[in-house]
Structure formats: C-alpha cells, structure tokens
Fold this sequence. Notes:
This protein is α/β, with parallel strands linked by helices. Helix content is about 30%, strand content about 30%. It is globular.
Amino acid sequence: MALLEVKNLAVSFVTRNGVNKAVDDISFTVESGKITAIIGESGSGKSVACYSMLGLIPMPPGRIDGGQALFDGKDLLQCSERQLRKTRGRDIAMIFQDPMTCLNPYMTIGKQMVEPIVYHRGVSKSDARARAIELLGEVGIRNPESTVDSFPHEFSGGMRQRVMIAMALINEPKLLIADEPTTALDVTIQAQILKLIAELQRKRDIGVIFISHDLAVVADIADEICVMQKGKIVESGDRAAIFSNAQHPYTQKLLSAIPAGTKVPHAQDAEPLIRVRNLETWFEIAGSETVKAVDDVSFDIHRGEILGLVGESGSGKSTIGRSLLRLVPVTGGEVTFDGTDVTALDGPALKTMRRRMQMIFRIRLRPLIPA
C-alpha cells in the first residue's frame, strides 16, 4: 500500500476574472523509502497540489473541487483543521523554498526547533533541545551546541536551508515535502542539499515529494517523476523512462532546456561597456576586524556580452554586483561604466547612472513592496 495516494485531485481559485483551475484532476502515489519528483514551470500547479492536501491554501479564494489524498488510510481532504494540525509537522513535514520567510527572525534556531517537538510529542524542553542539537549535527551544521542559540540572520543561505531540513525531520515524519529547496542556493551548496535529502531519506526510510521546475536537479535523486503543465500531469514514470524515452512534447521541451555546450562567440566593441580594475569592498565588523568581501578584482564586460560570476555562498559574487551600482561602499579600485567613473559619482549623478544599470535580486519578495 502506498504511503500517499492522490486520486483525481482538483483545486481552483475564484477571482474577479473567473475561476482558475490550478490543479486539474491529477493522480499520483508516493511510496515509503522513495522520492517522487513533481516537475513543471512556475504556475503549473506543483506547489498548490501539495499545499492543498495539508490545508495550506487560503480558502477563499482557493477551493478543493474534488479528489482524495489518502495518507496512512485517511483522506487528508476530509480532515478537520484540528486533525490537519496534528498531521502537519509530525507525520508530514515540509521544507519551503525560502527559509527566511519561514524562520522567525526574533527567535533563536533552537527555540524554533524545540517548539514542534514539544507540541506534537509532549517531551520536555531539555530533551527537545538535545534532539535539536543532535539533528543540527546530522544535517551538517558546525558546532551545533553553540549555533543552536544563533538567530537565522547569522547563518548563510545554505546553512539556513539545512536548519529547515532539521526542523522538518525533528518529529521523524513519514512523508517529507520539499518545495524547491535548492532554488536560491548556488550550485555547490545545491548539490550538498540534494545529497543530504537523499541520504536522510534512505537512512530514515521516509517518502519524499520533491517539487522543482528543473529536471536536471532531480536527475540523480528521483525514483518517480510526474511532469505537470497547466494544472495537469502530462507524463509520469520512473526516472529512466522519463530521461531516456520521454513521450510528451512538454517533457521533451524540459529535457532540451537542460544547458549543454557553449555560447557562440560574437564580435566585440573595442572599448568595454564596464571596466573594473582592482575593485575592493571591505567591511568593518565588531572588534575592528576587516572582512575583505571583494579583494583586488578586475574584469571587462562588452556590449552584448554576458559575464558569469560563479562561486560559493560568501565568495563575494553579490557584493561585486552591489559595488558596481554603489549599493555598498567601495573601499578601493576603479569602476567605469560607458566611460564614466562610477566611484566618483554621488547624489543626482549617481541616481541618473542607476537608471542605465539595473539589478535583479535573488529573493523576489524582498525588493517588492507588499502593500
């Protein structure tokens, strides 16, 4: 018997412009000890399908139009809110995409990890704290005895995601839902998180739903793959069948989108659009210690050219971008944009320059005004 069996699930949202079918009559199963990946582009219904089973979509405007979600013999769609609260965090746990929108910035990591195990299991706070320290060590957090009392902002993006994994596992759930847990992480940290999830799944023999928009991400960890498009599952099968013999045009399109080869070079202008020489961006922190976030960096970018900055979290990639726009103070060096020395600009001249040089931020909810 499957750990989770979803039958003919349909979810819609009622808006002023009509009814939007977010999930349209989908069915899939998740086995204990297996990873089922749900793949599709943004808006395909991946997350809504999983959130609706746990009562995590707002109703209204959302509504369950039909179907069943049988977990351990009970239909989650028929459970009351009280019953779902007992299931969420204990038998079914979630890892969300952005830890900073889920972790409380005013509470230490330890207090946030202790809360669910005390609520669901009724253990003492001291025993819960010991369990939290043990799990932090298991997911690769250094010095868990001391970091358990740290706040979320004191961790890097990869470490915060490890904390979220530890929180999800603290009650030893039977099913883990991972909603694009590696999207905002760099490639090396992404690989570590994927490896960690796969290892924990095998070690604990739990079922996993892994939600992603990228087939390449799940290529090495998924046992079964469901491909979603416009609210429907258009193709499903085991990993080998999907990657070697995809039948649906949309699945074939996703496979063809996996990067391969190199970009064709093109003729360049003699003068670069951006010229960076010996750039330094240093930060003074407590105790008069200096952090050299960017140290003696030089490069050119020509018109029509894409320059890739690749490195681990904390390597200085984002700080370089912010330094070019003067969003952080530049300690030394030269930044020239279209013949203008950016480091010498201030006031109205700097604002005018920024109209021609823009930045797309990683976490879209932070730069957008919510109200």
